[in-house]
Amino acid sequence: MTHARTIKMPDGRRVAARPDPLALFLAQQPLPRYAVTAVSARPGSTDTQSSTRRDYHTESFDIRKLAGGEVTLFGAGSVGSYLACALAPAGLKINVVDAGIVRARHTLGGRTAYNPAHVGLKKVNALKDKIERDFPGTIVIPLPYHTTEIPDSQIKIKQRRSLVTIVAIDDSEQMLRLSDLTYPITELVQPAMHANGTSGHIVACFPFVTPCLRCTLGIESSDDIHRLDSEPASGLDIAAVAHQAARMTLDIAYSKVTGQPITRWDVAKNLIYISNTKDELRQDGPGLTFEESRRRPGCPVCDITRPHKGVSK
Known about the structure:
Elements: E1 6-8, E2 14-16, H1 21-27, E3 70-74, H2 78-87, E4 93-97, H3 123-134, E5 139-143, H4 152-161, E6 164-167, H5 172-182, E7 187-193, E8 199-205, H6 213-217, H7 235-258, E9 271-275, E10 287-291
Parallel strand pairs: 3-4, 3-6, 4-5, 6-7
Antiparallel strand pairs: 1-2, 7-8, 8-9, 9-10
Helix pairs in contact: 2-7
């Protein structure tokens, strides 16, 4: 008597093993020539495991050099949809992961980049239709999956192919899971809105150069993140955070394609606070504040003084 093989999903469920169209698709894709497997140590480190040094430069930005490069975006909601559209002029191949469907409420008040014609479509398919229509040469690969449905191994395959991974989701547990998996492989950009859209932040993590997302945000677990699903916010404020995150994503991608260092902003200050109004950090009005974060000793994700094993759930 034979028993059907099962596999354990990231959320703890056991499901019957079956041919996976996503796994098949990934297995058929060749690794792009720009993929980087070696990581560099943080400045001043004597880590002998590093075989290359990453430099970032954006003084002479020619967006045409990004054509054909690949990025992966997790989340196609408010911030994610605007961010994808802001990346579109670069002629990239954009993998978009989101299981959601465009609802009528998503098209009101400019909360997302979708319009009434997209209602009822999968968000990833709506983005594909919109971006490929408006920006010929840009390719959107729609992946209509919830991140809990995708095993770690398949996520790592996408990350190894990607110049940058962008995590623009509200699920705090999955946010940390994705950032932990991404950290040793490729650069991570994590944009987020704060309460009522009055502010937001962007975290840019460079493998073993800057602290990981956990250390940058000063959190231990997903319980430390306050979710803001469907939080009221101005479409202009949402777009402001998304567009800034897109520009930083393109800066990082450009530096990896050209091999030149970023000079437009200080990559050591990897926590960017965005004020959409006057507040304690920006008393004169809206603007950006760049902050340098600190790596916590013994962090299982980014402390390079200990063997890296990542954080497993």
